[in-house]
Specification:
By secondary structure, the chain is of the alpha+beta class. Helix content is 26%, strand content 37%. It has three helices and eight strands; from the N terminus they run αββββαββββα.
Length: 159
């Protein structure tokens, strides 16, 4: 697969771009959320990443979860789409992005957690009342909204 963002960066350098991607809130049967500890910063986040050419957002979400944490998503439910100033991010290498992120919910997955050490240090499930404070700046809003809506999502049998 062609690294679309990498190829684009060769042409434009570190200038800000709009980057479309997806991430997934994975829940286990103890109602814990999976977080991925990134290597580029000392932050926890959701497994996810940038869309490649020709992919759907759902395909992006599934591919990124498999690549980053080794799990296969069976069923995704759209939670929300995020964009705007709060999703601006400057990578340690200077690349700037304004993310447009589709977040999915998934409690139907298979496999064992296997972290890709080129992208992460760890991945594990956390109780909803014990979420680490060092969340990625672009993920914090998403996790906060999920926690606020969690009981309603359970009641509606969405998760």
């Amino acid at each position: 697969m062609v690294d679309y963002i990498g190829e684009l960066r060769k042409l434009i350098g570190t200038r800000p771009i709009i980057m479309c991607g997806a991430n997934v809130i994975l829940l286990n049967d103890q109602d814990q959320i999976l977080l991925h500890h990134r290597i580029d910063r000392d932050w926890w986040g959701l497994p996810g990443g940038a869309m490649e050419l020709g992919e759907s957002l759902e395909q992006t979400a599934c591919r990124e979860v498999l690549e980053e944490v080794g799990l296969v998503c069976e069923d995704l439910k759209l939670f929300n789409v995020y964009s705007g100033e709060r999703l601006y991010y400057k990578y340690p290498d200077g690349n700037e992005v304004y993310n447009v992120t589709a977040t999915y919910l998934c409690n139907d997955y298979s496999g064992e957690i296997a972290v890709d050490l080129s992208e992460g240090r760890d991945a594990r499930f956390f109780s909803l009342d014990k979420i680490p404070s060092n969340l990625s700046t672009t993920i914090k809003e998403i996790v906060e909204e999920f926690l606020l809506k969690y009981e309603d999502l359970k009641e509606q049998r969405i998760i």
